[in-house]
């Protein structure tokens, strides 16, 4: 299953049920419920129970939240090679596979990405992202000893391509060093700052 799905919610939750992150209003709840139905369908689950979210997460928190949740449930989930997604264990026995799918659904429902981060970026937000990637991120990689083979496009091209360029795309970093470098030099700026533009 693709790790980048936007994840689920529950049918009845109040703001007090969420420990941290954005509060859940009725419009957010409607989106989370629809996401929940889509995830259950993609996983082949029929009539799954409602699962209350523990907290809404930012996109860069999603993989860690899923891995921690699945590990706590007894499943050996880990990061994908790019350290941005989740690699799930594989089971040939159907009962075990179904159990894993239920755990995935549960964890995705408990730690969904806040829907506000799924909105397309505006031109102002893309300009902010461009400045971050073309200067701060590129300089951070340089200080860490890495330089992209392909430099930044113009800001206009970056905006026209919806922010397709990032310096990691043409930077060679050994797999064993990638996680540390990405933690030190994140591909995106703080999401609250980005979405405040």
Mean pLDDT: 86
Given the helix and strand composition, which structural class is it? mainly alpha
The proportion of strand residues reads under 5%
Order of helices and strands: HHEEHHHHH
Work out the radius of gyration: 18 Å
Largest sheet: 2 strands, antiparallel
Helix content: 40-55%
**Numbering strands along the chain, what is their spatial order in the largest sheet?**
1-2
Q: How many runs of DSSP E, i.e. beta strands?
A: 2
Give unreliable regions as ranges: 1-20
Instruction: Give the overall shape, derived from the CA principal axes.
Output: globular
Number of helices: 7
Distance between the termini: 33 Å
Number of discrete domains: 2
Task: Note down, in words, how this protein is organized.
It is a single chain. The chain has 7 helices and 2 strands. 23% of the residues are buried. Helix 2 (59-72) packs across helix 3. A hairpin with a 6-residue loop joins strand 1 and strand 2. It is mainly α and 197 residues long. Helix content is 46%, strand content 2%. The model is unreliable at 1-20 (pLDDT under 50). It folds into 2 domains: 15-118, no CATH class; 123-195, no CATH class. The chain starts with 25 loop residues before the first helix and ends with a helix.
SSE blueprint and pairings:
Blueprint (H helix, E strand, L loop, with lengths): L25 H17 L16 H14 L5 E2 L6 E2 L6 H17 L12 H21 L11 H6 L14 H10 L6 H5 L2
Antiparallel strand pairs: 1-2
Helix pairs in contact: 1-3, 2-3
């Amino acid at each position: 299953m693709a790790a980048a799905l936007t994840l689920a919610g529950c049918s009845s939750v109040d703001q007090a049920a969420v420990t941290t992150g954005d509060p859940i209003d009725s419009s957010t709840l409607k989106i989370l419920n629809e996401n929940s139905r889509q995830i259950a369908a993609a996983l082949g689950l029929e009539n799954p129970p409602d699962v209350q979210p523990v907290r809404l997460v930012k996109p860069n928190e999603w993989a860690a939240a899923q891995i921690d949740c699945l590990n706590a449930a007894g499943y050996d989930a880990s990061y994908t090679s790019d350290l941005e997604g989740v690699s799930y264990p594989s089971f040939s026995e159907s009962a075990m596979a179904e159990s894993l799918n239920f755990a995935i659904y549960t964890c995705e429902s408990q730690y969904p990405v806040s829907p506000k981060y799924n909105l397309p970026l505006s031109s102002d937000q893309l300009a902010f992202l461009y400045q971050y990637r073309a200067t701060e991120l590129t300089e951070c990689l340089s200080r860490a000893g890495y330089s992209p083979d392909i430099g930044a496009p113009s800001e206009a091209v970056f905006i026209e391509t919806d922010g397709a360029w990032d310096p990691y795309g043409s930077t060679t970093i050994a797999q064993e060093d990638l996680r540390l470098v990405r933690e030190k030099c994140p591909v995106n700026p703080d999401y609250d700052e980005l979405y405040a533009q």
